[in-house]
Specification:
alpha+beta, outer membrane lipoprotein receptor (LolB), chain A, 12-stranded mixed β-sheet, Glutaredoxin
């Protein structure tokens, strides 16, 4: 009697566990197993982006991806083409190629993660070969067609990114991703990105390779730009005059004077490293108050710039820039820092923030 009861109880427990359905751990394991077995895949893609301005991008394209673990940037090589764009894009061992098959020519340059922003790169998802990492939590959802992994991420105060979420839709039979949806708030603007994949082929099903695309361009003409000499430095020259409105009071125009030394900071609200440096710049402004002017110049979206400054506790003077001042200071990247002495001469120019180097340079300047 006891033996019969034990069998019935065990059977009931097994049925109850099965009735509960799959767990997030079990689906994650199957997802990771399915993509781990892929070394090459191709697919058709449809990407939709929406923007705070109300604009919508809706693009389709074709992608070939190969796993390449030796690549420290993406871990893949890829070829991608957007249907509405004539050129093709190849990422191969750390170099980005923009290819015109019609004109039989290409350009080649060392590149980085940003190559995924190229027209062909926009169709690529590295999560077809590598599972999501760095998330805060993940839960499992499902419907008749998909298992859905719903990821959430910690807020990023440096880039002012909040409420970032990604949903990965897995085929219920193959456990391969077939759709990705990502939403986030950045500078209080909501963005939406959806990438849907069809006609997915893996490994031996793929009829071409990255090596074939790479060998094809061996017969094309290399039109990579010839590196030109860097523009002459402004260091040692008189600083270009500045007459710009204050971001906090746009009706007031400031005629910047070098009565005291100036640390001039060119930055933008969408630049992560710029935002990260704001609290340290505020500390410098306070540490050298009465001896040094810290002045920021930002050219895009004064409202969002003011909001970022408030969030980061930056109270130093900030002016609204324009094309003329950017050209005068030869600004083509952000952030950019100029240290100007009391005679109006530019003594230092930095293209990255280093608080120790700046502090040392300021102290040396004030000791002269």
């Amino acid at each position: 009697m006891n033996k019969t009861f034990s069998i019935i109880l065990s059977f009931s427990i097994c049925c109850a566990l099965q009735a509960q359905g799959p767990t997030v751990e079990s689906i994650l394991a199957k997802y990771q197993k399915s993509i781990k077995e892929i070394h090459r895949l191709s697919y058709q893609a449809n990407r939709i982006d929406t923007f705070p301005s109300g604009g919508i991008w809706d693009h389709t394209g074709t992608v070939l991806i190969e796993r390449f673990r030796q690549d420290s940037i993406l871990g893949i090589n890829f070829w991608g083409k957007r249907d509405d764009y004539a050129k093709e894009y190849l990422y191969f061992q750390g170099f980005g190629y923009e290819i015109s098959t019609k004109k039989k020519r290409y350009t080649k340059e060392p590149t980085s993660f940003g190559f995924l922003g190229s027209p062909g790169g926009q169709m690529v998802s590295v999560y077809m070969l590598y599972a999501e990492a760095g998330h805060e939590s993940v839960r499992l959802e499902q419907d008749d067609k998909y298992y859905i992994l719903a990821y959430t991420f910690k807020d990023d105060p440096v880039y002012d990114i909040r409420n970032r979420k990604r949903r990965v839709y897995l085929d219920r039979e193959t456990y391969l991703p077939v759709k990705f949806i990502e939403t986030k708030l950045q500078h209080d603007d909501r963005s939406f990105k959806q990438l849907t994949l069809t006609n997915i082929k893996i490994n031996e099903e793929v009829e071409t390779s990255i090596a074939e695309y790479r060998s094809t361009i061996n017969h094309f003409k290399n039109k990579s730009p010839i590196k030109t000499k860097k523009e002459p430095s402004l260091v040692g020259k008189k600083y270009p005059s500045i007459h710009l409105p204050k971001i906090s009071e746009q009706s007031v125009t400031v005629n910047l004077s070098a009565a005291d030394p100036i640390l001039l900071v060119f930055w933008e609200y969408w630049c992560g490293p710029c935002i990260k440096s704001l609290p340290e710049l505020q500390k410098l402004s306070e540490a050298f108050e009465g001896k040094l002017q810290v002045v920021g110049i930002s050219s895009s979206n004064p409202v969002k710039t003011a909001q970022i400054m408030q969030k980061r506790g930056a109270k130093f003077l900030n002016l609204i820039g324009n094309d003329e001042v950017l050209e005068a200071y030869k600004i083509n990247a952000f952030p950019n820092y100029f240290l100007i002495d009391k005679n109006g001469l530019i003594v230092k120019n930095y293209e990255a923030f280093d608080v120790n180097a700046l502090t040392l340079a300021i102290n040396e300047l004030l000791d002269e």
